[in-house]
Design goal:
Layout (H helix, E strand, L loop, with lengths): L19 H13 L7 H14 L3 E5 L2 H11 L7 E5 L5 H8 L3 E5 L10 H7 L4 E7 L8 H10 L4 E4 L7 E2 L2 E2 L6 E5 L12 E5 L2 H11 L22 H11 L2 H19 L5 E2 L7 E2 L5 E5 L4 H13 L5 E2 L19 H9 E4 L7 H17 L1
Parallel strand pairs: 2-3, 2-4, 4-5, 5-8
Antiparallel strand pairs: 1-9, 6-7, 6-11, 8-9, 10-12, 12-14, 13-14
Helix pairs in contact: 1-8, 2-8, 3-4, 3-7, 9-12, 10-12
């Protein structure tokens, strides 16, 4: 009886890089008993991560979503306000706008960067626009000079949703430090992780102080159990922050590995006309969160068939987000179209992106992708 072929070793989409230092610092929390939201690691993580981004203040939170929520609250955005949001993003970007009672006004992407189109944003401004949320999608920075100039014209704050863009640079400055407030996520599949968790960074002390007040039930820092405002329980634990501090020690290496992986993918997929590589503008130094390619001209169904073929080879992939404007909670009955975002969503496929991917694994992914495209 012929022997069956051994199943290939699975290649996950993303796996975090954790080691001895992460274990040691988390164990230190357990030994000390400081496992909740107080302890030395929260302050250290805030200070060091803000400094890494080039910002004066950091406020650790329970997630990237809660960081966005606190950012909008600190800026005074609320009911009756409009907030410009790219339609091509994870849904949390728009959800945070809804949390404060404001209305997300969706904007298409520019094809060169896959991020918020400044010209489309200019056309989307209303007399009720109160803020602009910019997303550095998949780690590529948005065209910040144009967007900041647009915001400055009307005195609007800019919130950077940098949840996918740790370490990415725009004209030599790190994502998150360019707008009024930058927000980050430390979910397990992000460049660095605290399991769950997030942070907002800003140069403005008043905004940082307001965010700290609101993340801790609105309790006064000078008077225990006195609550001048309604707040939230959005704190990060010392356990999570310990993991984050250990991850910061390897952040430069993580950035280098993601960029190395991007170069390997580019070399392996060179000469594959059915595949468009992710963008890298001349003024940008992106750090890919997920290495996302486009299957040129593919329908959503064809893209999904390619993903299924890779899954049969033990290779995990992920489709690009649906435009938020197409999701049931955000459909407004209009016939507005977002052609660039719709195309990117339809053709986009994220490939394995772990920092410890080997050259051989990337070659295997690319060979399987080419074979699946040939079968298509």
């Amino acid at each position: 009886m012929p022997r069956s072929r051994p199943r290939p070793e699975p290649i996950p989409l993303v796996a975090p890089w954790l080691g001895a230092r992460e274990r040691r610092l988390v164990a230190e929390c357990v030994r000390s008993g400081w496992v909740s939201s107080r302890g030395r690691f929260v302050d250290e993580f805030e200070r060091r991560f803000a400094a890494y981004c080039g910002a004066r203040h950091g406020v650790a939170t329970s997630s990237g979503t809660t960081a966005l929520h606190l950012a909008l609250l600190a800026l005074g955005v609320g009911p009756g306000d409009d907030v410009l949001v790219p339609t091509l993003s994870f849904v949390a970007t728009a959800n945070a706008v809804r949390y404060v009672g404001a209305r997300p006004v969706f904007v298409d992407s520019e094809p060169e960067t896959w991020t918020l189109d400044p010209a489309a944003a200019r056309r989307a401004l209303t007399r009720r626009t109160r803020a602009i949320v910019v997303v550095h999608l998949y780690g590529h920075p948005a065209a910040m000079d144009e967007l900041l100039a647009l915001a400055a014209r009307d005195g609007l704050p800019v919130v950077e949703d940098a949840c996918q863009a740790h370490g990415s640079e725009y004209r030599g400055r790190r994502a998150g430090s360019l707008g009024t407030i930058g927000c980050f996520s430390f979910f397990a599949n992000k460049l660095i992780t605290t399991g769950e968790g997030g942070m907002l960074v800003t140069d403005r002390r008043d905004l940082a102080d307001t965010a700290r007040l609101l993340r801790d039930h609105g309790m006064s820092p000078a008077r225990r159990y006195w609550h001048p405002r309604v707040g939230f329980n959005y704190r990060m634990t010392n356990l999570q922050a310990a993991l984050g501090v250990a991850q910061l020690d390897r952040l430069d290496a993580l950035v280098a590995r993601r960029r190395r992986n991007a170069r390997r993918y580019a070399a392996a997929l060179a000469g594959t006309p059915a595949v468009a590589l992710p963008p890298e503008a001349p003024w940008a130094r992106p750090v890919p969160w997920l290495h996302t390619v486009l299957l040129r001209g593919a329908s959503r169904r064809a893209r999904d068939r390619v993903a299924a073929a890779l899954a049969r080879q033990g290779i995990e992939t992920r489709p690009v987000f649906y435009p938020i404007s197409a999701l049931p909670p955000y459909r407004d009955g209009s016939r507005r179209r977002f052609p660039v975002a719709e195309r990117l969503s339809r053709e986009g496929l994220s490939l394995p992106s772990s920092p410890h991917l080997t050259a051989a694994q990337i070659a295997r992914v690319c060979a399987a992708l080419r074979a699946a495209l040939g079968a298509r």
